[in-house]
Every structure is written in structure tokens, then in C-alpha cells.
Amino acid sequence: MAFADYNRAVELNPRFPEALNDRANIYLHRKQFDPALADYNKTIEINPKIAEIFLNRGGFYFATKQYDLAIADCSKAQELSPNDARVFEGRSLAYEQKGDGTQALADFAKAIELNPKNGETHWNRAQLYYNEKQYNKDLVDVQKAQELGYPVDPAAVNDLRRKAGETRR
């Protein structure tokens, strides 16, 4: 659906949560933060039992660097949908930005347990391992991401192999 279609759907039914949520996602993509947040909030007001909306508003908070609010919304989404790997990955990214590597790794592990075939999640966890200089674990996740079809720069893999080899000595 195009943006105009979402506007029309909301005009016809201002309490249509899916249309409000999707319109909010478009606003967020366009970096129109005030109307995005207003639509997310309205959607939650209409139906506070839809995990997807908390996940999306958590993405809004992440994009606007409000990491505590992103974590809170991802946690609410997790309560509503405890087996959705995206919830754990979203929250892990916010924890990582806050500098809480321990909690980020726990959430990455849960996301991978729930959806082991998501190469992007392996890649994201690899980045955290790299930042924490855990090159051997990083290399395992990078190789898994590659195996799952996630695009990885071969030069970065070679550099990582070198660093991982140095830590074994």
C-alpha cells in the first residue's frame, strides 16, 4: 500500500491499528519523527496487545537514540510474543548501544536460538564480539552469517582470521 492509501484508510477508520502502524513505519523511514511517534502511540492506545507495534515503536526509539525506551518497548513486545526472535535482536542492539554487552549477548543468543537461520543476527552478534575483542567467537558468527547467505566482505574475514590467530598465541 502507498502512503496515500494508509492516509485514506486512517481517514475512513481512525481506529485502524494496522494502517496507523504501517503509516508510522513510513513516517519513520522518512525521518518524520513526530507523526511517526504519534501514530505508534495512537495504535498502542487502540490495541495494547499487538507485539508488532511495540517492536516498531522500539525501532523508532532506537533510531532516535532513546535506548532505554527501545529496551522497554522490546521487553513489552517480548511479553506479548515471547517466541519472536526479532524482539530479542532489537533489544540486544539497544543494549549494545548502551554499552551493556552482557545483556546484549544474552538477547542475541535467544534470538539465534529462536531463529538460527537469520544471518543478519549472527552478523550483528559478531560485531559485538569484535568490539569486545572476542575474535574467535566473532569469526564463528561471521562464518555462520556467510553460510546463511549474509553478505560479508572477504577482506574483513581475512583480517578477522588474522586477529583470531593472534589471540590463540
Describe the structure.
This protein has 169 residues and is an all-alpha fold. The protein has a domain of 54 residues. The protein is built from 10 helices and no strands. The longest helix has 15 residues. It starts with a helix and ends with a helix. 37% of the residues are buried. The model has no long low-confidence stretch (mean pLDDT 93).
What tags apply to this protein structure?
mainly alpha, 169 residues, single chain, elongated
Task: Tell me what portion of residues adopts beta-strand conformation.
Answer: under 5%
Over all CA atoms, what is the radius of gyration? Answer: 18 Å
**Number of helical stretches of at least 4 residues:** 10
Can you write the helix and strand succession as a string? HHHHHHHHHH
- What structural class is derived from the secondary structure elements? mainly alpha
Give me the count of strands: 0
Q: Any idea what the shape is? A: elongated
Q: Which runs of at least 5 residues are low in confidence (pLDDT < 50)?
A: none
Distance between the termini: 56 Å
Instruction: Please summarize the sheet with the most strands.
Output: none
Helicity, in percent?
over 70%
Give the integer mean of the pLDDT values: 93
Topology:
Elements (H helix, E strand, L loop, with lengths): L2 H10 L4 H13 L3 H14 L4 H13 L3 H14 L4 H14 L2 H14 L4 H13 L3 H13 L6 H15 L1
Helix pairs in contact: 1-2, 2-3, 3-4, 4-5, 4-6, 5-6, 6-7, 7-8, 8-9, 9-10
Could you give a quick summary of the protein structure above?
The protein is mainly alpha-helical.
